[in-house]
Amino acid sequence: MKKIMLGLLGVVLLTGAGASVSVSAANAKVLASRAWSQVTMEGTYADLKGYTIANSTYYRLRDVAELFSGTSSQFQVRWNEEQRKVEILNGQAYAGEPGQAKPSVKYENYAQKTNADILIDGRPVLVDAYQIEGSTYFRLRDLARLTDFNLRYDSIEDRIELSARLPEGAYSLQSAYPVSTQYQSSSEFSRWKEPTHAYLLADSEGTTRSVFGNDSRSALTVETYSADHKLQKSEAIPYELPIFGGFFSGSNYHYAVYGQINTEENDAKEVIRIVRYDKSFKRIDSVSVTGGQSYTVSPFQSGSLRMAEQGDTLVVHTARKRYTTDDGLNHQSQLTIIINTSTMTVSNDLGRFQKNHVSHSFDQYVTFDGNEHVLVDHGDAYPRSIVLHKGNGTSYQEVDLFDIPGSTGANVTGVSIGGFEATTSDYLVAWNSVDHSKVRGYTSFELVGMELDQRDIKLSALPKTTLNESAVREVTLATYSGTDRIGSVPKLIELSGNRLMVLWQEYDLNGKIGDLKYVRIDEQGTPVEPVRSMPYYRLGEGQPVLNGEQVIWYADSVSGRALYTLPAFE
Fold first, then answer.
1. Residue 216 burial (C-beta neighbours within 10 Å; 0-12, 13-18, 19+)
2. Of 88, 189, 313, 441, which residue has the fewest beta carbons closer than 10 angstroms?
3. 160 strand-pairing partners
């Protein structure tokens, strides 16, 4: 009878609490009050209820297992019939709790200390725990150690911050400055872009540098990491004007762009400053753009900023809101600045209507092909297309890579650009798009008739030898419209003269992050392999870079900064 009772006790505790325990009647009961600290999981509120006992927080094993289900720290909880113990299996998906509702947590109760004898991946472990009304509660820090997840307590906010461990191939990076989660890959799509704030540099010795436009500090923060991902140096370079526009690392120099508002339409006011630094971030000189030169009241408005160089020529391709026109409006358009870096002077006209005029221009890309530069814009009106311009600043060839349906000037286009590269044979643009056949109308705020903004991952390929619309090839890399997933804006990186990689993040319909997807393509945009998945990988804001035989990038999250790596070639 004693053996039967012990067996039943094990089953009851498994279903009700998640562990078999030994309770001593001599153990005095202690007061257990409801834990009021807020719990977050990857920055999102988690409905995890528990108790505070002797200044530590205790939670049910199965509740924590459910919380981490689907992450790199997931674990299964089951009853091991052979050893008559509860078993934790790290890395396995949690299957749920059979046939029993979760116990309610009261404001105040009494707990009795227990010895929880459990198995961790087959290894017996004795853990201190407390039993409360038939359920067993474990200290959260013990569970973090046993199942390998991250736990941080914010004493100022009285908040317990939980996050999953990093997957294999990812590395934690220490940061001397608070990391920002504002600029990340997302399952939602804005009408227009903003200037990129995160950049990554890599050298041949394996050293990497994160460069971040840190608006909270009004400084460009630069952090240097060794080949084994240890923080070696950090520095903050003050913004020279209030608004950060972008950063570029050229062959011999670094460049950063800053701006300021000019609502008074003062012709003499400096609205943009391009600052040149040496490779150690020591300031060398700068060149300025005034309101009168560029008709600018708001630099970088509703657009991005990217740069490219060839010899002594630096091209800055961005956006602006212009001076008030006769209709009483401040129209937005691209702004292309060509700089002679030997004299640090602007060499092209910056007027209202440049030769490569695009209005509105919601995203901008630039590269060089020989001595000519090639520009890509996301236009919603003139033209309403993904448009490419190739030229020298005084004349351009124009090609619409994708004509966007909808009325002229409707801000919502159902399209976002993610990357642009010039290969040996083609110009390739990575972008995403809704199924426009399902859209009944386009306004400045919505896609009429579209309940869910799901976008397919696409490429446009234009042969360099045939610069006209009829030569554009469209390649669909992944279809999401009508599925149970959402694909992010893709990123495009050149690996060699004839190989590139496209990467994007996948989400479920509730916005929960899923796998990273990637595929290698040839110089004409044709996939050379099936689309591949990397569970638990996270895309950041910045552009991935090639570092030897690896593609690398960093992403900031509530659990800190992480460097992710993928093999560039296979």
1. exposed
2. 441
3. 39, 153
